[in-house]
Known about the structure:
Layout: E1 2-7, E2 17-21, H1 26-35, E3 40-43, H2 47-56, E4 61-64, E5 74-75, H3 78-81, E6 90-94, H4 98-103, E7 110-114, H5 119-129, E8 133-138, H6 146-160, H7 167-174, H8 177-183, H9 194-198, E9 207-213, E10 216-222
Parallel strand pairs: 1-8, 2-7, 2-8, 3-6, 4-5, 4-6
Antiparallel strand pairs: 3-10, 7-9, 9-10
Helix pairs in contact: 5-6, 6-7
The protein binds the ligand O=C(O)[C@H](CS(=O)(=O)O)OP(=O)(O)O and magnesium ion.
EC number: 3.1.3.71
Enzyme class: hydrolase
InterPro entries: ComB-like, ComB-like_sf
Amino acid sequence: MDARFVGIPELVEAPSVAVVVDVMRAFTVAAWAFAQGAEKIVLAESLDDALALKARHPDWLALKDGPAAPGFDLVNSPGLLQSADLGGRTLVQKTTAGTVGVLAVKEASLVLCASFVVAEATARLLRARKNDGVTFVVTGEDGQADEDLACAQYIAGRTTEAGTDAAGFLRRAAESRAAAELTEGVRQGVHPDDVALCLELDRFPFAMVATLEDSLMVLRPFRS
Ligand SMILES: O=C(O)[C@H](CS(=O)(=O)O)OP(=O)(O)O
Ligand SMILES: [Mg+2]
């Protein structure tokens, strides 16, 4: 498998297969939402779009990163989501990096959203698909976020070599700028357990696949 690692600004044309990685925190949060029972997550283009979708579907829950805001029900924190009952619910998610990365590759034939908590399930799906080339979208810091790059490189390694050791990749994520900002209170809408929850390798057995449904990008868990 030929693995390419790119930031969002480098996405000039849609790849065939894209794995969009956001460890801290969008796709750790998405996985937790499914673990808490959510049926699907609609990835919104903007905060206004998220609120408009919720207005059209009053039973949907809107989630954003940063501080809580009027009209939004949830923030982008795995620690805060852990106690939410999301059974059967649809979420609308809008974040700074993760959801933007997915919308940039919505024309791809296969779009996976990934983080360490679904790493092996993501690699398993890629192994089963036997793709020649996979584009990993490193969503944070215009492709420089080391927590996302480390996770992408780990998943690429697991896809081709089952024995890839996670320790060094997890260490890089733990030492990343994002981890420091979450720990030091630079970012808002944070639970004290967020960094640790983002570093839980293979916490969940499912991958996450995003598909276009009626012109919306919709994320669902995929159990192989
Ligand atoms: O919620 C997050 O950690 C970040 C946003 S920010 O860097 O705190 O503004 O969003 P994400 O898209 O999950 O990287
Ligand atoms: Mg991030």
